[in-house]
Write a structure and sequence with these properties.
heterodimer, A: 431 residues, TIM Barrel, eight-stranded mixed sheet, eight-stranded parallel sheet, 14 helices, 30% helix, globular, B: 337 residues, alpha/beta, 12 helices, 9 strands, 36% helix
């Protein structure tokens, strides 16, 4: 049975076509069918109608970096609870990192995740597979079989492979099966026992620092290897201005490489740690304000392709420790868009640029059909009230873990409704 | 499921050589090289010369009395620094059938372990006045180095990942016996190209004979610059085998030895193992070849290895003929010395 839906009087923003217009959109059978500035020609009379006046209609967000506790750590997060948080945050697809128990390094586990998501998740779950067996950085996994099972990319998640020789093999082999590599760049020797950005602030707190070189040196290595091997390479997350410069230089000569930044590194800095607040303990660490500003410039220039949430649920037990002993990571699926809108409200970044980094670019990097509002594509979209005021309360978050760095943050802007395949999966209670 | 061996044997009997008997080898044009170090030193006419000589050797091994006196009184040393069963046996049988006296030296268990260098070994053996030394060594270029230090002929029986000229010649002879020609064929070489001397020698030989060559392997097993040594490079086996006349499989060194260049045997077999489904992309009468020893279920389905298209056992037979021809060629030059 044909099910038709018309979203009318909305401000349509589609970064992929650089469209920003007022108009109406027709959706049938879960696909975008037509859009027009005025009346839609031939719109069916029996269609459901959503009057979205005052709201922005954007493609559903695609989050390239989400950790879930399932399988293995369901107390932190399940695919179901992550999908609830995603829907509330306007995320209609997320890449689920392979740091699970057991590690997702086998086609059978990728298949399991997809089947499990089919049953329990409202949004699209895109499984990433481990780049090395057991995330141990020693042996490559079965990229061909993992790809056939449905893995969208290869990554060691939070872990960083230290051996340049192994990376060369991994990149070369990944290119064979056209799977992108997504790599967290971190030199463990330079990180040492560091727990926050190296600098005056770390010194004042008496904490061991992590220099930006722990990121820039492996980033440069990876980008050179990516060029050597002609592989699709995405630096999972960069955190400092010098990394932005390195990316910009390599992007100039190699369009197969890209990078991401977490919303945390674009909106917070090391000073937010205050007096040892462990919810701000992240990997890579929050950097200096100059770095954050350089990252924003990188986002505007295109040197940074993707904004992701780096959603990493950790229970209170592993966060309620002295700073140096606490776990890294913060949840973010539900707050990513709202936090990103801070950059829009402060007039630092255009709305379309922000949305592009959460829709078009991640889709392009993974080779997905979604991430745009275009005829014939799956109707994954969100309706945003750009000015809706709200305050983040840990209790109100849908994630099973409450480790948000935005506790009590005052945001302007919120996702009002979220649709996957033209079907509503989230509606804000006041909408 | 393995096809019975005897059935495979029936199918794989090469066409009988049409030309005359081995006794006429003396009328062959002289071989213009002192050694056989690699295919790269050979011209197209050198290759044709050796293949013609080898073809005449085939019937000798098939008759009840197999020994000639061509090399009577000559001394052949098989000097193997790397363990080998079939190549060493093949060279030994080839030499004996021509009447040579043979000493086998397996250097793994010999003076190398007592600290003697390659040059020392060469000088020592040279002093024993051999006529030909057949050498296999794990290091590329080692055979050539040894050849510079001895007064006799040297035949390369495989040096590292560099060359294995008699293998390429026996492969060419096998193809010629079955297809009647080399010219105009499309030949796909599949597997561990990066570390294969067999692949290099075959690409050189087939290139010299203007055969259309393809290499097929995962990118991790493709050496840099290989595209300049063959006609086409493929990383997808189905495309790589499409309409091929000959499929040459290479042995995969087991994962560990492979330096982790492939993640597992099951993945390798799934994407690059020669099974019936992939073989169906080649021509219906395509030959299946393998230099041995095979890893059944790793690079080749056992039933393909033993199937009607397989000429793997013929390769072994042609190996003896080719090595007889090569020994005869390099020693034939020295009769007047």
């Amino acid at each position: 049975m044909n099910k038709s839906l018309i979203v009318k009087n909305t401000r349509i923003i589609d970064p992929a076509s650089s469209k920003d217009m007022l108009g109406n959109v027709l959706i049938e059978d879960g696909l975008f069918v037509d859009m027009a500035e005025g009346q839609l020609p031939g719109s069916p009379e029996h269609a459901d109608i959503i009057d979205a006046e005052g709201l922005v209609m954007a493609p559903g967000l695609i989050d390239l970096r989400v950790f879930s506790g399932e399988p293995g750590h369901e107390y932190r997060e399940t695919l179901a609870s992550a999908s609830d948080a995603a829907g509330a945050g306007g995320v209609t697809s997320f890449v689920r990192m392979p740091d699970t128990l057991p590690v997702t390094d086998d086609g059978a586990l990728v298949d399991y995740i997809l089947r499990r998501a089919e049953i329990t998740s409202k949004v699209r779950v895109l499984p990433a597979a481990a780049m090395t067996k057991g995330l141990e950085g020693m042996d490559i996994t079965e990229y061909g079989l993992l790809g056939e099972a449905g893995a969208v990319c290869l990554t060691d998640g939070r872990k960083s492979v230290q051996s340049a020789a192994l990376l060369r093999t991994a990149f070369t082999y990944a290119a064979n099966f056209s799977l992108p590599i997504v790599h967290h760049v971190q030199d463990y020797a330079l990180t040492g026992k560091g727990v926050m950005n190296a600098g005056l602030y770390a010194t004042a707190l008496g904490l061991a620092g992590i220099p930006t070189e722990a990121e820039t040196i492996p980033l440069e290595r990876d980008l050179q290897l990516a060029r050597l091997t002609d592989t699709r390479y995405h630096a999972a997350q960069i955190s400092c201005g010098r990394s932005v410069n390195i990316m910009a230089r390599h992007r100039h000569e190699n369009d197969l490489v890209s990078c991401g930044a977490s919303i945390n590194h674009l909106t917070l800095n090391e000073n937010d740690i205050g007096s040892y607040r462990t919810f701000f303990k992240l990997s890579p660490p929050l950097r200096a304000e100059e770095d954050r500003q350089a990252m924003i410039d990188g986002l505007k220039s295109g040197a940074i392709d993707v904004i992701h949430s780096d959603h990493d649920p950790q229970d209170a037990e592993v966060k309620r420790h002295p700073f140096a002993e606490a776990a890294d990571g913060a949840v973010g699926l539900e707050t990513m868009l709202a936090a990103a809108l801070r950059l829009y409200h402060s007039s630092q970044v255009d709305l379309i640029t922000l949305l592009r980094a959460m829709t078009q670019r991640p889709a392009e990097i993974l080779g997905l059909e979604t991430g745009r509002i275009a005829r014939g594509r799956a109707a994954d979209f969100i309706l945003i009230d750009l000015d809706y005021p709200w305050v983040v309360e840990e209790q109100g978050l849908r994630s099973r873990s409450g480790n948000t760095p935005f506790e009590n943050a005052k945001f302007s802007g919120k996702v009002m409704r979220t649709f996957v395949d033209g079907r509503e999966i989230f509606r804000h209670c006041e909408a | 499921m393995a096809t019975p061996m005897q059935e495979a044997k029936v199918h794989s009997q090469p066409k009988k050589a049409s030309s005359s008997t081995a006794e006429s080898v003396s009328v062959d044009p002289p071989f213009p090289h002192r050694h056989l170090l690699g295919i790269s030193q050979l011209s197209q006419s050198d290759i044709l010369n050796l293949l013609a000589r080898a073809e005449k050797m085939i019937p000798i091994s098939r008759r009840p009395r197999k020994t000639l006196s061509t090399l009577a009184g000559r001394t052949q040393i098989n000097l193997f620094f790397e363990p080998s069963t079939r190549t060493q046996a093949s060279f030994e049988i080839a030499g004996r059938r021509l009447g040579a006296q043979i000493t086998n030296m397996s250097m793994k268990t010999s003076s190398m372990s007592k600290g003697e260098t390659l040059i020392d070994t060469a000088a020592t053996l040279n002093a024993m006045q051999p006529d030909v030394i057949v050498v296999r060594h794990a290091a590329a270029g080692a055979v050539e180095l040894l050849a510079q230090k001895v007064g006799c002929a040297v035949i390369n029986a495989g040096d590292g990942a560099h060359e294995h000229p008699t293998q390429a010649l026996l492969d060419a002879l096998t193809i010629q016996q079955h297809k009647g020609r080399l010219n105009g064929l499309t030949i796909s070489i599949c597997g561990d190209i990066a570390r294969s001397r067999v692949a290099r020698s075959n690409l050189l030989l087939l290139g010299a004979m203007n055969v259309r060559t393809r290499v097929v392997a995962p990118r991790t097993l493709l050496p840099r610059g290989i595209e300049h040594m063959c006609t086409e490079v493929h990383t997808d086996m189905r495309q790589g085998l499409k309409d091929a006349d000959v499929v040459m499989m290479l042995r995969l060194q087991h994962e560990r030895a492979a330096g982790n260049l492939v993640p597992s045997v099951r993945e390798y077999y799934h994407f690059f193992g020669l099974d019936h489904e992939k073989l169906a992309f080649a021509k219906p009468d395509a030959l299946v070849m393998h230099p041995g020893p095979m890893n059944r279920g790793v690079e080749i389905d056992p039933s393909v290895a033993d199937g009607p298209q397989s000429v793997i056992n013929d390769q072994v037979e042609m190996g003896v003929a080719v090595r007889m021809a090569v020994l005869d060629a390099v020693l034939g030059n020295r009769q007047d010395i």
